[in-house]
Fold each of these.
Amino acid sequence: MTESLTFPSGFRWGTATAAYQIEGAVAADGRTPSIWDTSCRQPGAIVNGDTGDVACDHYRRWREDLAIVAELGLTDYRFSVSWPRIEPVPGRINAAGLDFYDRLVDTIRELGIRPVLTLYHWDLRQWLQDDGGWRERSTAKLFAWYAAILAERLGDRVATWTTLNEPWCSAFLGHGSGVHAPGLRDPALALRVAHNLLLGHGTAVSGLRAILPRTAEVSLALNLHQVRAASDRPDDLDAARRIDGVANRIFLDPVLGRGYPEDVRRDVFEHTDFGFVRPGDLDLIAAKIDSIGVNFYSPSLVIADPESPEIAAYPGSQGVSFVDPGFPVTAMDWPVDASALTDLLLRVSTDAPGLPILVTENGAAFDDHLDADGRVRDEERTAYLHDHLAAVHDAIAPGADVRGYFAWSLLDNVEWAYGYDKRFGIVRVDYDTQERTVKDSARAYAAWAAANALLPR
Ligand code: PNW
């Protein structure tokens, strides 16, 4: 690349984390367990038997971590609030939990950074799971109640609110394939859970509107799949339609006011007739949002495969297989193709005209290491971030209204079912000493943020 690619003025250069993945201190100050604390104690659920008990000890080291974000000159920091810290037992607000996020938000702002708050990044309170969790409609109401508590406390200082992070994962990895907490495998339940999550989103949005200043930005972060068909043959195109339906449109369409897609209803009819949708639900779910968060890591390529049984994380996917698109892969074995992000952003901007887009997560795990001179030369991550930011630029040029980008993740952290094995951080964490090392990728990212441009490499 010979010239710099400049981003629109005001473009937000952020980085992101999630509470369970970094905080540790799982029993501190009155916190009670979440479904992830439970899951990580089930033999075999998490690689190496890892747990989030200590994680990056961010609950104690948060000042140091925020200082790194400031030193990198980033404009935005996306974090999530741990529901079990706020409401450790039914109906009782934990002052110490609220105080933690209050201090965090004040310090983020003092450092000149914009806080972007996610209300739910998968750490459901275990006692609520014991009462049925997202299987129950009532959980949507409880979620909105919790959202309102936080809005009352932080609404004067946090401008951007994201309700749910990646409801596809909560519904279909948590209740379909069972690789995420609470580890259930029941496609009919997973579809009901998807609806209750969306109901929680919509109910929370309405509640937030009543509390937050009119200038607040309310959003939802989806891990949209960029699905391509292996060929233009009708059966391959139909395979792509199915995956697009149950991964993307089942969330996007109701949120954008179009209700559940008819073709998805047909694909999953053996599991459910959507009888869980009650009058008024779709209006609630369509509550106006101010931006949409897109989390993107890797493209999907699918092919018609008549012998293939339903893939548990994709209800209605019988007769479909995912195939290797042949790109280089990350340590997660996820193929890397930045052009898929351009296509995805253009698709979202066509689907949701007028709705600003934030890339709320993008990044990669690689097996990087600390060199003797104290540096982490993670060139593959730098290249990944560079190419995906160029892909964002490619989407903005023809008109996608992308307002910002958040590198996942600030820190190496607990990568859910993969434990500490996979390092996504732009900052390295030594889990023995808790020492942080700013990786070369973070330095490169900081330089682009300072220039508001991708500089020639
Ligand atoms: C996202 N998939 O998770 C999450 O928001 C982060 O907490 C996580 O660390 C990050 O991506 C990296 O994995 C995903 O199987 C987990 O398609 C799994 C999938 C997608 C996203």
Amino acid sequence: LREEALAAVAAADTTAALEEVRVRYLGRSAGLTEIKKSIGRLPPEERREVGREANEASREIQQALGERARDLAAAEQARRLREEAVDVTLPGHPFPEGSLHPTQRIIEEVVDFFVGLGYRVAEGPEVETDYYNFTALNIPPDHPARLMQATFFLDEGLVLRTHTSPVQVRTMLAQEPPVYVVVPGRVYRRDSDPTHTPMFNQIEGLAVDRGLTLAHLKGTLAAMARHVFGGAVEVRLRPSYFQFTEPSVELDVSCFVCGGSDPGCKVCKGAGWLEMLGAGMVDPAVLEEVGYDPEEYTGFAFGMGPDRMAMVRYGVPDLRLFFEGDLRFLRQF
Ligand code: PHE
């Protein structure tokens, strides 16, 4: 019985099999246990001998079980470690990753820049009233300037906003100066060609405070341009005209795409400068319209087109590509 048990212990090749062997040879109904129970019925002169033998056998089996259990546990752990080993030299699983739309990148960079200066982000409705889109911005009804905006008119005096400037008015009506807001948003005009789409994006900016001048406007926008297009770009202002700013300017950025005034440069067309945005000092008529005192407060405003900025920065020839959702285009960013 002892030999048989020891052989079974040696043959058990898993922890579970070993447990079965233990039950079979040392368990309550095992042969050895029976022998021990029957010792009392033996003639007294045999009891000692049989008892000693039985105890020795069970000690020996127990010891063999213990050793085998230790060996099996070690072997099982070694196998598990081997199976679960991670080969860090294998190529990883590809992780499909989206990317930001090129326009969205510009928007986030510009907005982050102004938030860093302490500006607040404001938003307004895309379906706008005639009043906010035009009248409050010093563009009276029947004024020919409205025609320049290629407006989508809706019913009942509503329009699709043609610019983000109505949010200037909404912001000023909602709070007292000082005002520092940046306004990203979609705008709409009846236009479609390689550089115009019926929907596009604008980022408006408005600052109203005591003592603001055109110099603050220029310094602010120069810092913005360097943040977005690189520290080396220069800016210049050119006179322009908007109904809601006086004076009005356009801001050009030095051609950072192909360097200087290279006549072969398609983006800058040999001019060395890129038109970047419209801006100006808030017209006193607009300040009065929202109840601000133009004698006490002055302000500057600007409006830029992040889609155009993305075209320039990434060398995209056709604005319409930005709105078609073609993955072959979008995956390049
Ligand atoms: N709203 C003007 C446009 O759409 C841009 C602008 C904004 C000009 C703010 C001056 C001040 O063309």
